[in-house]
């Protein structure tokens, strides 16, 4: 499997089924501002709230093959294997599909993700053990604490300024490596000082 980051903002995502698993996937899609549409005769209370708040669209009935038309990405998340298979069959070659109970027929898997601002660490076991992926995520949450969010903002600023102001290649590389020291991650005052002294 080929790992990438996918821009999903405003893209049409169809979720078939409105249960526990659908809700878990939709939460993550909404965080990335996807345009989510759910087809299902029943939905969870959480999804109901999203409908009331205008955050998702809900088609209140069972799946029809034409529902997949116009979707960029599709998740078949019903508790009925043959319905999920039909959803997969209804997709065209170019559509990305995830079937929650049939990894072998999916184009992509969802990953366990640790987010610290711009830093995203995604874990996959390629379907072998989603629970291990979740466990590793919990371990990484401890290692990569909240501080990484500010640190990464600093790295972005510093990198930009170094590229704009330092033209000597050797010094540029020196400075880009210098900011990797934990010292800067842990100390805001040192970060400010570093930014002021770039020349
Ligand atoms: C292939 C994949 C396809 C996909 O869903 O994309 C898939 C498939 C299946 N999951 C199943 C079960 C569970 N999945 C979880 C949890 C997560 N599952 C996720 C991803 C993936 N799950 C993809 C591979 C990821 C990888 O391997 O790295 C995570 C990481 C991300 C996410 O869902 O967003 C998220 C944790 C996120 C977090 O904590 O951050 C739990 C635990 C829990 O819910 O607490 C259980 C119950 C325990 C168990 O069964 O192990 C079953 C059996 C269903 C059944 O028996 O009926 C199948 C189907 C099969 O294996 O055939
Ligand atoms: N990939 C993953 O991460 C995981 C996958 N699973 C699998 O996910 C599946 C769904 O699990 P849950 O969400 O817990 O089930 P659930 O019972 O909570 O929800 C099923 C949903 O599918 C809807 N549905 C049923 N027939 C439909 C149809 N013809 N058209 C549209 N919607 C329909 C139901 O109305 C309900 O909203 C299970 O088969 C399970 O094996 C379970 C755990 C994790």
Strand order of the largest sheet: 3-2-1-4-5
| Name of the top-level CATH class of the largest domain | Alpha Beta
Poorly predicted residue ranges:
none
CATH topology of the largest domain: Rossmann fold
The number of helices is 8
- Cα Rg: 22 Å
- Major sheet description: 5 strands, parallel
Outline? elongated
Tell me what the CATH architecture of the largest domain is: 3-Layer(aba) Sandwich
Q: Which hetero compounds are present in the coordinates?
A: ligand SHN, 1,4-dihydronicotinamide adenine dinucleotide
User: How helical, in percent, are the residues?
Assistant: 40-55%
List the helices and strands in order: EHEHEEHEEEHHHHH
Number of strands: 7
Number of self-contained structural domains: 2
InterPro entries: Met8-like, NAD(P)-bd_dom_sf, SirC_C, Sirohaem_synthase_central, Sirohaem_synthase_N
Protein name: precorrin-2 dehydrogenase
Organism: Lysinibacillus telephonicus
Keywords: NAD, Oxidoreductase, Porphyrin biosynthesis
